[in-house]
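dumping this here so i dont lose it again. seq + smiles for zinc ion
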Amino acid sequence: MGRRVQRIKRMTGSKKGGKSSEPRCGLCGKRGKLTRTECCGNWICDDEDKYVLFSFARNSCHRNHRRYTLCGFHHTERHEGRWQDCAVCRDEIETEMYVHYGTNEYNFEKLSNPPKYEPTKCAGCGAVIVMSKGGYSCGPKGYLCMKCTEKEFGRMP
Ligand SMILES: [Zn+2]
Ligand SMILES: [Zn+2]
Ligand SMILES: [Zn+2]
Ligand SMILES: [Zn+2]
């Protein structure tokens, strides 16, 4: 099997600020204050300073890519090689989240063959839990939806 390894080459001799090739954020398409991602070298909004600590807002392209994609995770964890082929990422992340991280809108390049997975179900009532949306807990019985979590542990104060 011939595996093509693509590397991002640093462009040399490209004019800065050329009118026709003005960079845009690869995620939202905006121009303006941009930076390149450390993980994959793509143009992205330099907007992390707008993020309000603990607000959990997902309005920062830079932060979203860094926190909610395999590309960002792979880079932060200092794995080797490409994230698309990384066995460590695949192993460490629950398949459902792995697929979500690899295919959500914060990716420049999406996972081409996302693995199949069984939907996660609540161990209490059997309701399907969408992990990327949150609102579940993980305990000795397995995953529990919010309702069953409250039944099991009582309401959080
Ligand atoms: Zn953006
Ligand atoms: Zn990246
Ligand atoms: Zn990895
Ligand atoms: Zn339940």
